[in-house]
Amino acid sequence: MDHPTTALDMAKVEAFAMRSIGDVTAGYTGVMVSLGHKLGLYKALAAVGPLSAKELARRAGCAERYVREWLNAQAAGGYLGFHAVSDTYELSPEHALVLADEDSPVFIPHAWNVPAAMWFDEPKALEAFRTGRGVAWGEHDERMACGVAAFYRNGYRASLVPQWLPALDGVVAQLESGICVADIGCGHGHATLLMAEAFPNSRFHGFDTHAASVEEARRHAAAAGLAERASFATARATDYPDQRYGLICFFDTLHDLGDPVAAAEHAAATLAPGGTVLLVEPFAHDRVEDNHSAVGQLYYSGSSLICCAHAIAEGGKLVLGAQAGPKRLADVFRKAGFAHFRRAAETPFNLIFEIRR
Description:
alpha/beta, Arc Repressor Mutant, subunit A, Rossmann fold, 2 domains, two-stranded antiparallel ribbon, globular, SAM-binding_MTase
């Protein structure tokens, strides 16, 4: 569409164009972050302090000319510090938590697998937008499942056992005494295993429709020595076996389901008397305009290609999306017969709810 230049605020055009360039730059930077992680460049910098390009290349086993260009890209973006006099580059301790410490709750490199998979799957997204068909979780490039699982693992490690479970009335005491727990949409099993490690008297059962993720979860359980009290099986959110669960968990998964009300009804049918549903969902306000933020932009974008697409692939009776908000979530469980729905905790990225019949 043509616009007369006299009607345009060219300062606004330039400002938005530069912001768009910034977004493109972020995409380039993501590739650099992934390379820095996989090549061990960040870890080498974190281990010894300021290094020249030559020394970093030697320590990481890489070619110096490539490493120097990578270093300059990182320094230009403020990821690394540059010391002109000594011609060395430095990773600060604060940035190392984000880029080099794989156990840090703010470790970010794995997250870049998700947009990589989204780009790879663009032809499927184009078809889905044009036809309205769904794209199931298992139809995505394998980097999607790996990236999501690895990214969420550290955040859950920092919050699930020390903060979220204690925010639920009486649940920690039940876990310590021994109950059956179901993790619906368990993915690679990281959250399931965090609980299994913390509460040896309870038994944990992870369920997911994605067979490859279930197999990965079993491998993680075996490697952690937790296979005796943490099992994983392929099942839908509406047909996993009834074991009178004292706790049923939906970790960032309810909004992905094609029929969340049916999933809530199945939870009600399989919950033990006095049992609790733990619902963890992406942070969102109820009004669309209140979600116009960086977090909202992230979640709406992911929801377009991942969450809504999978829900539609499952039949799409109620496609919540990743920004459902507390009122819509509460309505799902009210329709399923639950009377108690309480916000127990929150973070900038998640809402945590305690739900009982």
